[in-house]
User: What shape does this take?
Amino acid sequence: MPASSPSPQGDVVVDLAALSAGDLAAVGGKAANLGELIRAGFDVPPGFCVTTEAYRRAVRGSAVESGTITDAAAAREAVLEAPFPYEVAQAVREAYDRLEPREGPVAVRSSATAEDLPGASFAGQQDTYLNVAGIDEVLDAVHRCWASLWTDRAVAYRTAQGIDGAGVALAVVVQRMVDAASAGVLFTADPVTGRRRQAVLDAARGLGESVVSGSVDPDHFVVDTATGRILERRAGGDGGRAASVTDAQVRTLAALGDRVEHAFGSPQDIEWAFDADGHAWLTQSRPITTLFPVPVRDAPLPAAHTRVYFCVSLAQGLHRPITPMGIAAFRVVGSGFLDLIGRRPARIADGPGAFAIGGDRIFVDATPVLRSAVGREIMPRALDVMEARSAVVVRGLFADRRFSVLPRSRRRFARGLLHLAVRIRLPLLIGQALVSPAAAQRRVERLAREVRAREIPSGGDIPTRVDAVVDLLFRAMPLAPRSLPGALVGFGMLGLAGRLLRGSTEPGDLQTVLRSAPDNVTTQMDLELWDVAVRARRDAESAAALRTRAPEDLADAYRAGGLPAVLQRAMANFLARYGHRAVAEIDLGMPRWADDPTHLFGVLSGYLRLDTDAATPAQHFADGARDAEAMVETLIGRARRRGPLRATAVGFCLRRARALVGMREMPKFLMITAMRPARTELAGIGLELAAAGRIADPEDVFFLDFDEVAQAAAGTDMRATVRVHRDRYDAELRRRHVPRMLLSDGTEPEAVGTAAAADQPGALRGTPASAGTVTAPARVILDPVGARLEPGEILVAPSTDPGWTPLFLTAGGLVMEMGGANSHGAVVAREYGIPAVVGVPRATEAITTGVDVTVDGASGVVTVTPAH
Assistant: This one.
């Protein structure tokens, strides 16, 4: 085997200098990245790679190759018992003999094909052997590296990342070791706060493995890459010894890391070593896979302008990524909003220039709001009730001089508000809600009927029909502000009552007033789904079907008209009213329940597991209404002690609040209703494009945007584009953490505060959302589709939208990472009378399924009982 073989395909040993990123399948991530470092001119210790072809020859004919072994320990044993192929041993021997310098030990390190990928680093999942000397020891270490592909930790990690172990193979890097005076790890971006161009360095004397493994307390440095200024230094150990690296070496490494980042195009996790002569060597570089992508603004601004991005989709209860068509629809709706305030964009499909996309989520550039005096007054107060943790983050940015208030900001805000008020007749709507809540509700119901009647004109070619979809979505935007004033007045009345009652209320009193508020379309939907379960329970054949058949089977039978008659009819009636709804329904690309009712059948099966003697959700709702009315009278009585006029005012405010806040769900409901014909039209276009071979599947139309659909209609084959979009979307589905806010330099402001307080012990704290205390096992659910929530369990979720709420009927309590006291999840939890705490940072990471959790919905404290 020639040491400089230009391609590793079919070879069993290849020199590192011959490798590149294109050789990933043959040499694994570690080796491919080392090859790229060498090609870019960086100093890397010499070595060679034993390719995946060698591994496959070693396991050929074994149970590992056939996939019949599923137990990790048995797979490891099978690999170790397999004989080392003679031709592979000879190739390794020859490469080892050529390795320069001839003397000294080598490192033998695993390099898996699923390692150091953009979405998963696999760091430390397979084995590494250091200070290996002699060919016999090298061959033994290679053999043990092969077996480490099947360690319990590696198998578990692959499973968590959704990677099929049957297709994974292992390469092995053999590399001359550096006689290191000091070594360690360098991150070219801060892995905790996310800030780019801020190098974080851990260093220790001797080998870097001690730093990687955590067996030593390293020296720690933080460096501003742009200036070379050392921002932070902390000595390892007891601090009484000299640092393992000099300041000059720290700056050298930061600059070196910056060059590596530019070479790879993304922030890197780098392992390095200084030899006795002070020369820097790179022994590994891989992407920092935990960083959230910096949102890219639709209308770019100079890089020097630091911006604040607010995650709109997360604030709307959507933790998962959004499809390309869903993002395109958001842009059109955003254009509709700009039109309402007199700033209509030149091209509707482009959307607001302040939109930014990161990790397939929608952010908006909130910098102008923070730099506006009025914005600083309104935004945090609105977030206090809708997304309380974000309000804390926003207020924390007020002291940052980069976001100081601009002059004349009030005038610009006033112009936009005046334009909006005139367009939607805002004073009239507010007055109507105050005088007659019933009239305000009738007006919103008329809006709903108007929206349901909207259709897209039939006929025309695909571009014409796409234009019609864009026009429908654009015209749907005014629905939200036209339907929202009633709910805003309701919350305003509640706030005023709170002021009038200051000093006379206990925690949870005002929340109780909002329990089981009337006219909430989401609550009505959930209760109607419960009614479907009641009807099914009374019919033996329907009940048996729900108890014994899988949700997928039930959904197929429903579409074929083959369910038991009672269940078939009840579901048909439900979907006729709510079939346009779904989990993640604000994403136009997500299937509606009418398209796929599998999730609903899973929920119905869960309802039937409830104890028949327990109170029903309808009874809970009625009890909640009685409790609310009783609390209104109690609070009026407390106010009366301070005068009859105050009591009258408190009574008026609280009753108006109860009558109006239920309408808070209408803006989203109307928008989702307006999306129904848009999705139907696009689904039809997808059928045509798939039939023409422009996309592989009709549903692929939702993984294109409007312009890309037009390209497909013009004859362009968009299958490769769809694959790229789907691959990125699928990778983002696995992301656990999405930041509420992010700066354009990558810093997550909330993480800065969290890191500073990380050592402070105590319970998890959030925003009180629904009074009451409950202790029960937790169930962490990231996606409700297919999720099973046992009756009484505490639902722990990143965020929720109406598609989640059927689960609330069986939940014992709710813990949510997002939200405020009047966010969607909080409102529904109150109406069902389940204790809830929202806005709990990283709750889905801090709590694990099965542990006992105590939720105190009045204090906002969540206590986790450690597992034994």
